Each structure stands twice: as C-alpha cells, then as structure tokens.
Amino acid sequence: MELKIFQVMDMDLSLLCLLLLLLVSHGVGLKDMCQEARCKKHGPVIRFPFRIKGKQPDYCGYPGFDLSCTDRKETLLELPASVKLYIKNIDYASELITATDPENCLPRQLLNFSLSTSPFKFAAQLQRDLDFFNCTSRQRDSYLWTSCLGVPGYDIYAFMSGSIVTYFDLTSCSKMYNLSSVPDDLNSRDNILHLNWSRPACGLCGALGKFCRLKNNTDRIETECYDKPKSNEGTACLTLSALVYLKPIQIVCLFWNCWIICLFKKIRFKYS
Q1: pLDDT for 155-172, tens place per residue?
Q2: Which of 109, 174, 205, 222 falls 20 to 30 Å from 93 in CA-CA distance?
Q3: Residue 242 burial by CB count (10 A; 0-12/13-18/19+): exposed, middle or buried?
Q4: What is the pLDDT of residues 113-130, one digit of tens each?
C-alpha cells in the first residue's frame, strides 16, 4: 500500500515538474514577443524599430515603422497617402531600407508620395525636379521614360525642369504635371527605391551586431543596445524528452494544460 502511495506521489511530482517546465518555457515566450521575425523564410529580418502589425505588440516597434505580411508573405510598408511598398531588405547598421512597388511602377506612386509625416527620407543624394509630358511620338533624349504610365498610342516622359525649351521638340506632347525632388533611384528603371531613417537611432547597435530598443524611464527618444536574446529551444527539447517517461493519461493532461496556456497567450497578445 505504501509503495503504491509513493508511486502515485512520484508520478504526480513528475507531472508537476513537467508542467512547471512548460509554464517556464511559455513564460519566456510571453516576455519575448519582440524577437526577430520574418514574413517568409528569405524575407527581411524584422526587429525594432520595426514590428509586424497585428502579430507583435505596439511596444515592439516605433510609431511609423509598422510592417505587415501580405497573403503572398511579402513584407509590406504603408506610407501616408496610401502609398504601399514591398520591403526587400533592411540594413539596420546603415538605417536603410530597399523597397519596390507592388505593381512594378514606382513613377505612379510619386503622385501621392509624401514623406513629410513619415520617419523615412529619400536616401538618394541626387534629387531632381521633373516635368511629365504625354507624347504621341517617341522622345529619344528624355531623362526618364516611364513606360508603365503609358497607354497604347501615348507614352509618358519625364524631363528635367528648365531643359525642355532648349533641347527637346515637344510639338507632339502635352504637359501633365511637375514633381519636385524626385530621387535619382527612379532613373534606373529597376523599380527599386531606397529610404533611410535617423530616429530612433539604431545604426550603432546594428553595426555592433546587437539589438536596439528604447530606454525605459525617459521622456526623450533615447535608444540603447543589448545582446541578442537567447531562444528557449533548449527548454522545449528538455520538455519533449521528459514526455517519454509519462503515461498516456498524463500526456493528455499536459497537452490540455498547454492548450490553455497558448489560449491565454493569444488573448493577452490580442489585447496588449
């Protein structure tokens, strides 16, 4: 009788220890909601000042740096005036992002492009003022031929402001609009745009191979570097190894408790 009691106590103790192990591993996960993430396997690494909207709490990122994952697992940045860009690379040391247009036509986005309320700026040093014309005949010497804007029978050309009267014959063209400070990136016709940011300052952390975060208990925008958090994979492996020594009913109980913990985690994440 005493032997059976000790066996039951030993089983209960084992179950309790494993449950505590599960709680610890999930507790680490709850605190580490701001770990690196990606929208797809080879997509850009996302960490502070960026965050994935809807999947990470607000405190994981900085205002204006919200990203989202599309149905095709592309990394999407939404700028003011409904401008949407796919992010192909994030260089945290240089504080530089490489972006493309989802519809492969960046010139079309320029009409609504405004970075005045955005934390990003054009990275290109050279920027030009351009006049856009609708032409029925080909203009060989135009500064930029924006083929994606044209329609059959009409092509859209961009000329540097002030150069049209002297160098070009525009008798078959009509002016549409002009744009100021267009980054020289768009002249390459490869649908790539580079944007950079300066606040919050995380370049030094990236150069040192560390992570960046806002300092606590300060009203100013100050950042600090910290070492890359360790994952809790070791705890997970230890937990799986311990399952071998449990009986089926105990494993069922553990998975039930684990499901409750995961549910609590999702609810807390949703309303954090």
Answers
A1: 888 888 876 656 667 788
A2: 109
A3: middle
A4: 888 889 999 998 888 888
